[in-house]
Amino acid sequence: MFMDAQTALLQPRPLPNFVETTFVRDLTGRALTYIAAGFPIHFRGASGTGKTTLALHVAARLGRPVVMIHGDEEFSTSDLVGAEHGYRMRKVIDNYIHSVLKTEEDLSQRWVDNRLTIACRHGFTLIYDEFTRSRPEANNVLLAVLQERMLDLPGSLEGEGYLRVHPDFTAIFTSNPEEYAGVYRTQDALRDRMITLDLGHFDEETEVAITQARSGIELAEATRVVRIVRGLRESGACEFLPTLRGCIMVARALKAANGSRPPGDGLLRQLCQDILVSESSRGGSKAPTVKVKKALDELIRRHHG
Fold this sequence. Notes:
CATH class of the largest domain: Alpha Beta
Number of helices: 13
Order of helices and strands: EEHEHEHEEHEHHEHEEHEHHHHH
Radius of gyration: 26 Å
Low-confidence stretches: 1-7
Shape: elongated
Largest sheet: 5 strands, parallel
Structural class: alpha/beta
CATH superfamily of the largest domain: P-loop containing nucleotide triphosphate hydrolases
Distance between the termini: 39 Å
Strand order of the largest sheet: 4-7-10-3-11
Number of strands: 11
């Protein structure tokens, strides 16, 4: 993707270092099938499970310009649709007869489309990232867009008070599960209008391929890092399960440190503790941290060499 300076839209391009394994191809294919059937797609999963990257990949496969919105608690409907901003003034002075002065003024507000309206009007792909971070009442305008294919607008703008959604308009949503802090419960009416694909952790092949592609480390070392993280998930020691993002962070740190520190100094153990302990025990309490460190020590010994 890249930003077109003239249109301020994301233009679809293949994502750099995007890894497409059998698992990812199957997920992408299902999403494109639902879109072809006329349904909006919703990728739901924990942070670090690749929701936004996958949404951008699907949008690139569609090949149409992309409008992106990031959910925000401060959003109102006008932040999605648009509003009247500023004024336009027209003044005419007629002094054709020198003894008669005629002045005519016309003052009107100026409407400015926001991103949802732009996407609906022109048939672009809308990616609404983390849409549950916006308050539900702000998202109510989407109900008619997704079901009746109409966007409610001020009557003064469109005459009839609505805009017919372009037939090529597509919506892709992402969100965290509703128990996450900082998110709102999705309206049932909105959730019923979309097809939700729950994203958990990828299979080992996909995690290894992505970790290697995003870090540049050797395949054997990427496999080792991924198996340590996957083992930590299964250990029962974590308050929060480490994600693929943790694999990438450890691998990139290894890549950056290799050559600057001698081998055998516990580098991998230290990096895993710095990165994965904080990701797995966010409460800051001592007991969970000790459990995670013990689990990491055992996993690093198991996957040594």
